[in-house]
Amino acid sequence: MPQIPQTLHELTVGQLSARSGAAVSALHFYESKGLINSRRTSGNQRRYTRDALRRVAFVRAAQRVGIPLATIREALAELPDERTPNRDDWARLSRVWRSELDERIKQLGRLRDHLTDCIGCGCLSLEACVLSNPDDITGEEMAGSRLMPERRSRQGPPEPRRDPERDPAGPSSGSRP
After folding, report:
1. What is the Cα–Cα distance from 74 to 34, expressed in whole angstroms?
2. Which of 30, 78, 105, 177 sits 20 to 30 Å CA-CA off 120?
3. Per-residue pLDDT tens over the stretch 125-135
């Protein structure tokens, strides 16, 4: 890992990338999302303060455990004077994030357990699909996949389809077989 001299107070994007292990494009992305900041030189080059290394490490660690960037940005914004997070900040935030992660783990476990049921049905649009319609909540409102609701024409709702085998009245008048 390249060493940065202690006398160097600002880093180029390349130095920050080499030292943090984050790609230059990731650093630009983090900056666009307000996770890190830079100043521009007279030649329009980015310069980062040394504390950007800790901020990048904080962001990457939080990402590795599944924390969304928006949540990370909110956490960083709550720090006084937008200072760099320290160990105490990480400890406090990790306690909060732990409960969120535990809930996500439970949800993923439920999804995993129902995955074969869903693939077994083969259509993903049954009224009681355990993945797209848990507990058949949508089935009370409408049939079919909730991702593909019935289209309504401009003249009004479509005529109900008739199944000649189930409907003793047969096809409706004026319709072709």
Report:
1. 10
2. 105
3. 555 565 665 66
